[in-house]
Amino acid sequence: MKSITAENIKRNYGKVEALIDISFDVNKGEIFGIIGPDGAGKTTLFRILTTLLLPDSGSATVDGFDVIKDYKSIRKNVGYMPGRFSLYQDLTVEENLKIFASVFETTLEENYHIIKDIYQHIEPFNKRRAAALSGGMKQKLALCCALIHKPSVLFLDEPTTGIDPVSRKELWVMLKNLKQLGITILVSTPYMDEASLCDRIALIQKGKFLNIDSPKNIVEQFQKKMWGIKSKNMSKLLNDLRANPEVNTCYAFGETHHVTLLNEKFTIDNVKKYIENKGHNDVSITEIAPTIEDCFIELAKEK
Amino acid sequence: MKVISANNLTKTFGDFIAVDNISFDVSKGEIFGFLGANGAGKTTAIKMLCGLSKPTSGKGFVAGFDVEKESEQVKKNIGYMSQKFALYEDLKVWENIRLYAGIYGVPEKEISSKTDLLLESIGFQKEKNTLVKSLPLGWKQKLAFSVSIIHEPKIVFLDEPTGGVDPLARRKFWELIYQAADKGITVFVTTHYMDEAEYCNRVTIMVDGKIEALDTPQNLKTEFNQNSMDGVFHQLARKSIRKAD
Amino acid sequence: MKQFLIFTKKEFYHIFRDRWTTLILLVLPILMIILFGFGITTEIKNTKFAVYDPSRDVASQGIINKFSTSEYFTLSEYLDSPEQIEKLFQKGKIGLVIVFSEKFHENILHTGEAQVQLILDGTDPNTALTLTNYATQIINLYQQEQKESKNILYQIKSEIKLLYNPTLKGEYNTVPGVMGMVLMLICAMMTSVSIAREKELGTMEVLLVSPMKPIIIILSKVVPYFFLSLINLTTILLLSVFVLKVPIVGSLWLLIFVSLIFIFVALALGLLISSVVEKQMVALLISGMALMMPIILLSGLMFPIENMPIVLQWISNIIPAKWFIIAVKNVMIKGLGIASIINEIIILTSMAVILTAISLKKFKTRLE
């Protein structure tokens, strides 16, 4: 059985098309990532799947229940963590947990084994108010609150936004552990580097899915050879490369510029000569594997 | 030429040492990355350098002025932008530019030519009369950055400028940073994207209020035997004992 | 039930962990009572008056004419006996009764002296004071004219008598008004703000995506403020009896009964506001502007309703506080029984029922 299915979901806010024809499904026990920038429609999609919003057209099911007709059943069986730290800031860690346990008609003890690993991180701060926790801690607490009733499907809307890289990494380890318990996880993120941590991902931009596949397949689908080029003066290098008519794309990617060429006849040796003629020192050119971010840029351009 | 110089800067709040005796120099035109987990002391350090918070001990010089005694001079020579930095959403693009040009003390007769120049440099001529709230996030960030350097400051502080922006816009944003650095503006930037650390000429990593590493990305990767800045950062940040903010 | 109890407790945590909220909820009522204790001058036009005139002679008719032609007063009726006076005031239809002594003109001619009694409703001391001034002026004017035209020298003594509030205490007007304001403020504003806060924080999203029934969410929001408003009601009544020396003349239970109905109206209004707003700030502004301003201006707390333009008088009818304040005045100060406020009770009850129905219906189980 599929944990989540969505067919041709459309949703507008006034004239703005937030979601245009979204279809996908998520298998049981899968970590499925919705990857895309702010404003791409991630939150709208999450709200429709968690029964908070009605789609204008299309249908969706979660755990076999229809998001419109059976919304009450869905609300009993899923865990949801909205994009903001949805905690009571003036209540302590312990009080927050107790309240959310009561919301889901359960107790902290009943499903302690589910949240144990995560809860141990924050247990030392049991008596501290949520407002005084760091971003990472807040997110762990919110995750505990969303898991307290042992949901079959977990919806995490941008759980890693606004928290530091260390906490981000910890959070992903926790998600992997939850997957072991058989919980299906739908997670959204604007961080492209987190894509590889998902079983499958959907790249989303302006309300449309650009591609749905495993991160590995998406990268393999990238047609062109990708070159990583660097020199002493990266800023000038960028302009010089772009000025060359044989260069297809050239984007700054931190350490190197990621470059694709228009056709293979113009070899990379020619590029090297061209750069050196422009007076660059310490030129280094290596063939590199494209990242999800390269794929995203490429796919976004095609659409 | 040193445009920022921190000598044993320390800031304590009661018993808590937020920034613990940090020292570093930043040269003109350099892109200087400032990394650290939440609560490592980044924000406090930036506040001291911008003249918003007085150091408990130590000295800081920005653009040649003492951050403690000449904070007004410091403020005149810096620009600031953050992810949360507010352009006024209900004002038009040119109204925002005009407003900030005024705030930053750009002479009245230069404002209109500077506005045109700015619009041209980021390709916003058509959006001149658009309300800022109807711009995509990536565009807002570009505009905010350009506005923050409209008075041609010596240094611009960027606090997580690219959060949530789409990949292409993120690239374009860094190109703007490159351009600014080419013009001789020193860029002091914090980020949570470790790949962005690679754009910087030099990077410092703060852990528990102290600077644990300071070098070029290449040297740091060699030193810590990692193939990405992400690896370097995690190796250092794991040492942290400070947990909450 | 357990859910409900935990949630109610949580709501109290929210209230008492924020110093400002606590302060506003518990100290504001006291401050308001004191602040509104000061009188506010008002101008009155076309007040209806009745006349008890056993002599019916030239002089009394002359004075009555002077009153009717003035812009301040309109003649309503002649009374047959002094017993009718009290009843008229209890109906609240008139603002002044003029009582002439027997053989009014004869007394003037023979002794050069005569007496007029002016009876006013003292529960609204501002109005009473202004009316007294106008009335004495008119009588003095009449005297003056007589002196000039007929060269008759005499003196009309006007004696002023205030019903219900013989010492003309401002507090008599303030207490019911402040009760209306405070109860509305605590119930409507705080309820709407606290629900808006959950929306702003994102916790409302989590609550909605849970098996929790909407009615529990609503009840757990409403109950704490219901209790707080009872505390405030007690504070205000204690303050008014022991500090301001305004006694509760009528039945305390009846007063509490009316207040409870009003509290329900206010809570329902708060729920209604919270169902349409997303932000705390907006909830605050709406309850501040849309609820408090009309209460202050149109409920008769500061300005007498009879003095307002007709349109505003109509509008004042939909302000719950207007009816509540009338009822409180009748019970607490005039000491009247349930029969005198049956209209107010019916109006307030129907408001409570209608508003609760609308707000329950409008409570969204989704975000839009």
Q: Which helices and strands appear, and what pairs or packs with what?
A:
The complex is a heterotrimer of chains A (303), B (245) and C (368).
Chain A lengths: L1 E12 L2 E12 L3 E5 L6 H8 L7 E6 L2 E2 L4 H7 E4 L11 H11 L8 H11 L12 H13 L5 E5 L7 H16 L3 E6 L10 E6 L2 E6 L1 H6 L5 E5 L3 H10 L3 E7 L2 E6 L6 H10 L6 E5 L3 H11 L1
Helix pairs in contact in A: 3-5, 4-5
Chain B lengths: L1 E12 L2 E12 L3 E6 L5 H8 L7 E6 L2 E2 L4 H6 L1 E5 L10 H11 L4 H14 L15 H12 L6 E5 L7 H16 L3 E5 L3 H4 L4 E6 L2 E6 L1 H7 L5 H9 L8
Parallel strand pairs in B: 3-8, 3-9, 6-7, 7-8
Antiparallel strand pairs in B: 1-2, 1-4, 4-5, 9-10
Helix pairs in contact in B: 3-4, 5-6
Chain C lengths: L1 H16 L1 H17 L11 E6 L5 H12 L3 E6 L5 H8 L4 E5 L3 H8 L1 E9 L3 H26 L4 E9 L7 H31 L1 H6 L5 H30 L8 H25 L3 H19 L11 H7 L3 H14 L8 H21 L6
Parallel strand pairs in C: 1-2, 1-3, 4-5
Antiparallel strand pairs in C: 3-4
Structural description of this entry:
The complex is a heterotrimer of chains A (303), B (245) and C (368). By secondary structure, chain A is an alpha/beta fold. Helix content of chain A is 34%, strand content 29%. Chain A folds into 2 domains: 2-214, P-loop containing nucleotide triphosphate hydrolases (Rossmann fold, 3-Layer(aba) Sandwich); 226-302, Alpha-Beta Plaits, CATH 3.30.70. Chain A has 10 helices and 14 strands. In chain A, strands 6-7-8-3-9-10 form a 6-stranded mixed β-sheet, with helices on both faces. Chain A has a 4-stranded antiparallel β-sheet with strand order 2-1-4-5, covered by helices on one side. The two termini of chain A are 32 Å apart. Chain B is α/β, with parallel strands linked by helices. Chain B folds into 2 domains: 1-77 and 170-245, P-loop containing nucleotide triphosphate hydrolases (Rossmann fold, 3-Layer(aba) Sandwich), CATH 3.40.50; 84-152, no CATH class. In chain B, the strands form 2 sheets. Chain B has a 6-stranded mixed β-sheet, sandwiched between helices. Chain B has a 4-stranded antiparallel β-sheet with strand order 2-1-4-5. In chain B, α5 runs parallel beside α6. Chain B is globular and about 50 Å long. Chain C has 368 residues and is an alpha/beta fold. Chain C is 65% helix and 10% strand. Chain C contains 14 helices and 5 strands. Chain C has a 5-stranded mixed β-sheet, with helices on both faces. In chain C, α1 (2-17) crosses α9 (214-243), α7 runs antiparallel to α11 and α10 (252-276) runs antiparallel to α13. The two termini of chain C are 28 Å apart. Chains in contact: A-B, A-C. Chain A binds chain C through residues 47, 50-54, 71-72, 74-76, 78, 80-91, 95, 98-100, 102-105, 129, 145-146, and chain C through 2-3, 6-7, 10, 13-14, 17-18, 201-203, 205-212, 365-368.
